[in-house]
Amino acid sequence: MSRWRAGTVQAWLEVIMAMPMYMRACTNNVKSGKVMLALTDADLEAGLGISNSMHRRKLRLAIEDYRQAESGHGLSKAAELDHHWVAQAWLNDVGLPQYSQFFHTHLVDGRLLGSLTRADLEKHLHVTKKAHQCSLLLGMQLLHMLNFSKEVLQARRAECESQNTDPLVWSCQRIIKWLRDIDLKEFADSLQNSGVHGAVMVLDPSFNTDSMATALGIPGNKHMVRQHLSEEMKALLSTARQGVEQEIEPLGTPPTLPRPSSLGRATVSRYGDQLSHKKLSVKPPESFSLRKHEEQDTTSLIRAGCEEAPPQPETSLNQQALTKQPGEGAKP
User: Fold this and answer.
1) How much is the pTM?
2) Pick from 245, 94, 236, 89: which is nearest to 166 by CA?
């Protein structure tokens, strides 16, 4: 990026970052890739007129990714996940397609997805149900475990499409297929839009037969049906939960913004030099409840994605990088 001319910067912003609404301000103020690499959050808001904080964070994470790539490491694998994939394919896989429009509006791509906290989900993406928040955070944890590699995820899912193995990577649709295969087809479709996917079943220790039965709408007096579900879940999950290795490989994970930062999340360093722990451990939650027609939700916390650091003030590294003209700047 440091070698880019103004035209390349503008094309990158419009096509790769999907932000044509900021083109005019970029054309007037950012004359090279070096200038883009030096921009701070304050620069983006004041100089480019980007009032949407999620859009600013997306750009800052991308800039940081390119800054780290200058040293020869290459871009993170998360850079390959555009906002269309996140809002359509990924949300559908985790069983929460109802939030697609909000993710589209904020242009949530792979890098931005990896930085989201529970507070971000509630404030910016309108995910107010605690169980849905945990579902999304566990889906993000799975992506971290796979180095944000879409190819690895697709390959593992293809291998277990016709056999009941590797439930960690199962999508919500794959679980529905499994439910039909074990003769619970009358309840299977109730799992649509529930947020139940493989990472929830395997990584959340509180997710049990009662959790699944509640999500499926199986009445409490259906004791034999619940017993059947319990035996099938035990056969499916016992080995997976014992064998899952929650190791995070340094390469491929999204970049983190340099401290101090106001993003309010202690994320894993891209190259592993700031890893505070080698494994992502799942914090035992109170319960995981997914009731289709009720507003009541309970929390399921994961240490890697749910614990948030207190916000810290922003600093401007290069406030003079922009030469904004009075009255100019695109509206978000």
Assistant:
1) 0.77
2) 236
